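User: Hi! I have a protein structure encoded as tokens and I'd like to know what sequence might fold into it. I'm fairly new to this, so please keep things simple.
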């Protein structure tokens, strides 16, 4: 299933626009785009929302016919337990996370111990925890960590764009992670020469216009029609003013949806 995530509304949520979009507002726009899935990923207000606010947002998702996934950072058992409780509120079947979080950098041995403590509850509740590919943890080490824990509810959130910063090739990451992939972050990426032709900038691109071989990802990760949800997000730089930036973000989202639907 193709979905949208909060990173597809990054600038619309931010305080750099005059009227930041609320979570319910993002859900409503998701419905307007005929999308049935939304990932609330790294959405800062979520853990501090009151029970009433959470119930209102979850109720809005149900009324709009939108399934919810959640996203956070870190593998501390108490933190993952908090997101498991939030998953229950939203009827979410997947939580995306990362090994590291701000101010939290466990060794792989420590992360393994934490995941072993956290995963039984996820298994009991039938919720999948998907750890994202990121440059801080080489892909091979992330795969090894997940295989050692050995839970059928622990897998990978595949984002090949991230691994380039660790000098990995996106296609290599896709092929290494395919069997463990439980979620996909769908965005395109490209290099551009910096002003003066000294060095490069690595950033986002409209889906289908950059370097990401997305058909290869689909063919590798989803053989035999195995379904893995694809969450649209962007690396869209600030465009100079709020109006231009928001227009570009909306356009990138429409382009991504059209592209992903066209390659089925």
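Assistant: Happy to help. Inverse folding works backwards from shape to sequence: for each of the 264 positions I chose a residue that suits the local structure. Here it is:
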């Amino acid at each position: 299933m193709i979905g949208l995530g909060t990173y597809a509304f990054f600038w619309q949520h931010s305080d750099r626009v005059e009227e930041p979009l609320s979570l319910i507002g993002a859900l409503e726009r998701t419905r307007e785009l005929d999308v049935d899935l939304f990932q609330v990923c790294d959405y800062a207000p979520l853990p501090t929302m009151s029970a009433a606010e959470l119930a209102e947002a979850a109720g809005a998702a149900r009324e709009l016919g939108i399934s919810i996934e959640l996203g956070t950072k870190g593998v501390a058992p108490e933190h993952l337990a908090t997101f498991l409780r939030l998953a229950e509120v939203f009827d979410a079947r997947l939580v995306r996370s990362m090994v590291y979080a701000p101010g939290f950098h466990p060794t792989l041995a420590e992360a393994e111990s934490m995941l072993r403590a956290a995963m039984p509850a996820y298994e009991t509740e039938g919720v999948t925890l998907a750890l994202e590919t990121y440059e801080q943890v080489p892909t091979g080490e992330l795969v090894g960590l997940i295989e050692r824990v050995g839970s059928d509810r622990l897998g990978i959130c595949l984002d090949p764009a991230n691994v380039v910063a660790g000098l990995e090739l996106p296609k290599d990451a896709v092929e290494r992670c395919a069997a463990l992939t439980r979620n996909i972050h769908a965005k395109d990426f490209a290099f551009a020469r910096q002003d003066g032709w000294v060095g490069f900038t690595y950033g986002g691109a409209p889906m289908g216009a950059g370097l990401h071989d997305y058909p290869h990802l689909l063919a590798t990760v989803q053989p035999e029609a195995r379904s893995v949800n694809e969450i649209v997000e962007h690396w869209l730089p600030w465009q100079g003013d709020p109006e231009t930036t928001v227009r570009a973000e909306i356009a990138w989202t429409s382009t991504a949806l059209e592209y992903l639907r066209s390659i089925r």
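A useful reference point when you look it over: Residues 215 and 264 are 9 Å apart (CA to CA). Feel free to ask if any position seems puzzling.
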